Each structure stands twice: as structure tokens, then as C-alpha cells.
Write the C-alpha cells for this entry.
Amino acid sequence: MRTYIENLKNHVGEKVELRGWVYQSRSSGKVKFLELRDGTGTVSCVFFKGECTEEALNQFDTLTQETSLKLVGIVRKHPKHENVFEIGAESFEIIGKSENYPISPKDHGTDFLMENRHLWIRSKRQHAILRVRHEIINAVRDFFDGRGFTLTDAPIFTPSACEGTSNLFETKFFDEKMYLSQSGQLYMEATSRAFGKSYCFGPTFRAEKSKTRRHLIEFWMVEPEVAFNDMYDNMELAEQFIEYIVQRVLKNRPDEMKTLERDISKLQNIIAPFPKLHYKEAAQIILKENPNFIVGDDFGAPDETIISSQYDKPVFVHHYPSAIKAFYMKEDPKEPGYAMGCDLLATEGYGEIIGGGQREESIEKLVSKIHEHKLDMKDFEWYLDLRRYGGVPSSGFGLGLERAVTWICGLPHVRETAAFPRLYGRAYP
Ligand code: 4AD
Ligand code: MG
């Protein structure tokens, strides 16, 4: 019977057919071993003289790395390890040959691996990362769907800039100048007036000419927006959300976490509530270790690490100076010059994973901000309508999916978190 490696536990003692690829093979005396992978896992297939066909033994050496095949054998419990199964192989049939597979078990440089990303994703570690990514995507949807949010995805072609003009990808929409979306937020403000609670979850683009371990050019962002929520409600929603996705990965993806050698003790206590710091408090913490920090500036990556290293949970920083934040942020009437924005910094130095806050309600203030940021008023008339017709306080946030995956998997670089990442200087394969 044809089956998948992840289902072998239900077939102990039975003869099964597996279809997959050779991960590794080796011979030792009379026994030959083949590690087969089929996308759902890997299993050790043992070839004993007498148990398998003569032909299988004779052909075994043609099973080079990544050869695809059908294999028939008996499912057995592993003699030593609990919950591990192996195959007493009988015979196999080669489907596709694989000669000189470029990625061998030895170490390769990252450039080489990125150039061969279409093959690299077959390796155990990359496979585990992309499975965790999938789990997080499902967790994101379940969290918001389970709380009465409506998914209202935002367009990718947009006439207006949401997060400043310095990193906009310009393109054409027939004869019109257009941009690739940096964020769906402005559209979610509109849909949250229609649905109360809405979210979008899709690709966003930032033309950032920087090669850091945190920046992608194309990344996925989930952006909830809630009408009538203030900045404090927003932080509460964000912390519950983060707790949910982290705990869900720990529950559903323990094997992947093991493959990644992730220290899960660091994730187990990611439980809401999280600490919350005013920008001014955060600045004082930074100054103790980085006396060159200028109060009023945005945090650099090392500054974020200084803050987050004080805590074993993610930490919010709120009330950033308005001058360093986007045009739509509400200025706190009680603290002129400070915006009711809140960013969430992950633990272990992973930096900002969430950016968000409360939106400006006043048309007058928005109009002057749009001028100040040198944006084109005509692109924002519809956005101002949201204030003209039943304006309300409103808050939301954006979580960068790949940054969340990097943090949860404990990776050194964001590039491994997308099947085909787009980085400054790399858009192949
Ligand atoms: O802080 P950002 O720019 O916030 C917004 O776009 C808001 N409009 C979101 C909202 O309130 N609805 O981006 C949000 C998150 C960041 O915290 C980060 O996780 C991720 O998006 N992000 C990136 N991820 C990878 N590569 C980049 N270049 C990123 N830029 C932002
Ligand atoms: Mg941000």
C-alpha cells in the first residue's frame, strides 16, 4: 500500500510502498542503509541480504543523492528509539536519476546555497524552517478568525505611500505611476469601519538597499485593525497574538524545533502580558550601555538588543517621538511631540517584530502631516473620508512574518525563512 513517512506509525508490520528521494546512503559490510525522504519526513531503509531482492543489492550503488524512487518494504519499530520507525527494504524502482547533486553533506558557503535555493529547500533544516513558517501562517489565521476578524486583503498596486517615500518600489499601472504596497494598513482602516475588526495578510515590499540579517525586499505582513481600539488595547491584542503563535509552534512543531536545535525554554515563557516601556524609559536604558545614543533618534539594531536583553519576554516600546514615525500616527494630546505608536521587540536580540499604534483621527492634523511628509494630498482623499464619515479612534499593527519565523526558529538570518527570499542583491532563483 502506498503511504507517506509521517504515517508509518500506523503501518507497523505491514508491507508498504514509499515514494521519495535518496537523502543519504551507505554500506557497512552485509548491510546497506538508505535514508529516504518524501517531504513528510525521512526514514531509514535497511537492506539485508536475504530480506531484499538480489537486484536491489546489486543496484544499490546507483542510488546517488536525490535519486527519486519507489521503494517497497516492511515497517518496523526502531530497535533502540521510541517512536522511530524503519523500513526493512525489499525492492525499489528508480524513477529519476540524480547525477552530481550540487549540495553534498559537506559545508557550503551561503552564497552557493542561496544560488541553489531551489534545491537547498530539500535539506532537513530548511524543510523544518518552512514547516514552522506554515504553522505560523495557520496560527495567524486561526487567531484572528477565532476572534471575529474578517480577512480583507489589501491591494499590492497602490497610488499612495504608507511608510514614507524613501523605500517605495515604483512601478507602472498602464500609464499611471504606481507603487508596490509597503503596508495594507490604510486599507485596513477602511475595512475596519465596515467590519469592526479586519486584517490583511499578504506580501509587502520595501526597496531597502541594505544587507542586514533582518531585511527582506519582499516580505509577508499580517495587519489587524480594530475600530474603537486605543494604543493600550492594541498592545493587549498584540501580546495575546504573539503568545498564541509561539505556543502553537511549540505544541505542533516539536520535531522541527528539535531539528533546528532551538532552545525552547526561551520560548516557553512567552506568555502575555509583556513589559511596556515609554520611549523615554527605553532611551535611558540604552544610554547606560551606549552613551552615543541621541535621545529623539530611532533605535538601531544594537540599541534594540540593549533593551530586549533586560527581559525574558518581548517588550513593547511606545510613545516614540512623532518626528521619527509615519504621518498617520496619533500624537498624544497629553504629550505633544510623542506618537501613540507601539513597537514590539522580540527576545534574544531579534529586534522589532511588530510595528503599530493608534491612528490620527483629526483631519486637520492629518492634512498638515501629509504636507509635512511631502505626500500628495489627492492620493489621500479617500483616507480622509474615513475621518469625515463616522471617524473613530482606531489601532492596529503589522507583524513581519519572516521576522517572526527567524525569532521563533532562532535563526541567524531572515533569508532562510522564505522559500525564495528577495534580498538586496538577490532575486534568483
Ligand atoms: O514597522 P512597520 O514599517 O509598520 C507598518 O508597516 C505599519 N503600517 C503596520 C500597521 O500598523 N498595520 O512594519 C511592520 C513590521 C515590522 O515590525 C517588521 O516585523 C516587518 O513589518 N518589516 C520587515 N520585515 C522584513 N524585512 C523588512 N524590510 C521589513 N520592514 C518591516
Ligand atoms: Mg517599524
